[in-house]
Predict the structure.
Amino acid sequence: MDVQSEIVKSEIVQTSGLDTLIELSYIGAAVLFILGIKMLGSADTARKGNMLSAMGMLVAIVATLLYQDVIEYQYIIGGVIVGTLIGATAAARVQMTSMPEFVALFNGTGGIASLFVGWAEYESRKGGWAGGVPSTDFISVTAIYIAIIIGGITFTGSIIAYLKLSEKIDGKPVLYSGQQIVNSILLLGTIGCGIAFVMDPSGMYIPFIVAVGLALVLGVLFTIPVGGADMPVVISLLNSYSGLAACAAGFVIGNTVLIVSGSLVGASGIILTNIMCKAMNRSLANVLFSGFGSGASTGGGGAGGPQGEAKFLTPDDAYYVLEAAGSVVFVPGYGMAVAQAQHAVRELSDILEENGCEVKHAVHPVAGRMPGHMNVLLAEANIPYEQLVEMDDINAVIENVDVCIVIGANDVVNPSARTDESSPIYGMPIINVDYANTVFVLKRSMGSGFAGVDNPLFFNDNTRMILGDAKGTIESMVGAFKD
Amino acid sequence: MQLLLLFTFVLAIFLGFELIVKVPSQLHTPLMSGANAISGISIVGAMIAAGKTGNETITIVLGTLAVTCATINVVGGYLVTDRMLGMFKSKKGNN
């Protein structure tokens, strides 16, 4: 083995052209990532884009293996085998409804990998910094620290997001008095450790270890005050962090392909975060810190909430309305995912179409627990592309719609957002289902939505509540059509 | 060299914004999981830490852990994105 690697090594050292080849391969990989993301922008090319991006990754990996200093393959192979087994099994098994927590978990593995890379690089280089850090290494030292902090926050933040999304822990915001103060002190501590570390990295093992611990704690503390339905924002943000952590790792080892691809991911996450916040008419700070949906901070609703009597309907009665309808719009929310109702929805929408009815599925940008979550579920159920409409497009024509079927969505169709200035969700763009001729609301119970706000929609004259499991309800409607 | 890296970083961020702003909302989930897979690029740094000649034990251990985690990220991320996008595609064929 040793002899063999010596031979390999000596061959490689002689060919300085190999280094150029590796650098060129990295450029190729970066180009493939960029093209891949570009092609992800259209449904027709998206799958090919993802493959191009995967090829880019393969090119980068192979190029790194050719790197003349990389000669101990056994650990790499071991890690790759274990990682591939876990990753491939998880990817094959995960249900589409569980995609948000799955992506959260994967963000976490990316984050912790960057933390380990930063740490490993620190271990291998700290000896050289014993007599003080040369100014040329200043960015490396800072980058090591940043990679570790962002990586650590991403890791534990993602774990909490995963636990909340998979309902292994309560999704409600966790708030306590002085929370912002505690977070600020810890953040300052992290920065303080950072300064101490950058000034003297070789002698500063304790600040380094403390910083790793602080980053892990901060990830938890930043994520626990965020409620379940605000998770689309948090996942987007963690996605951005995982990219930035990879980027920092790129600065650590001076590798451009890490920097380019990390930046792309970082930018992508920031844009999605921004889109999610806009769709809820809230600032990022409000989402992250306010504990929205805890009930305590939302006041509204309650005694002053809408009064009146809701009108109920059975699925069999609903059939008579649907049978006569010329246009039906489904508005899915997280409840559809929970009930796994997407296939039943597809069946009902097919039957309605056969019946001569025009069917659309209107998706609110923050419906579900991650950006685009509902679209994936509808795609899984083979709902045709042409039937999907975005919020603004359906709102423009919603007055002409005969029946809107709201499936497990609540806040995104709550008219208070338009009419009630005292409502915590006032100003949030919603799908105006209340303007349709008839609204069916499929819900498990009459409880309020995530925001803890009463929904006057339920008490409108043109609203009919159909209580029960959404999947069962829709299947009953399908059954009524078949009879 | 270091400043050149910073320059690359800034340019890549801008490029990322330009590319991703154009992605329609229905593709946001695959975009996110695809981007997530790309963030596993830290596998490059991980492999160097795990396989570089003359590295100390602790570096190798950390590097190997990093390779494992980054591989989960890369393999899982690309496969699940492909699985999702396969669904997006099939409906066109059916209709």
Notes: The first helix of chain B runs from residue 2 to 21. Chain B touches chain A through 85 residues (CB under 8 Å).
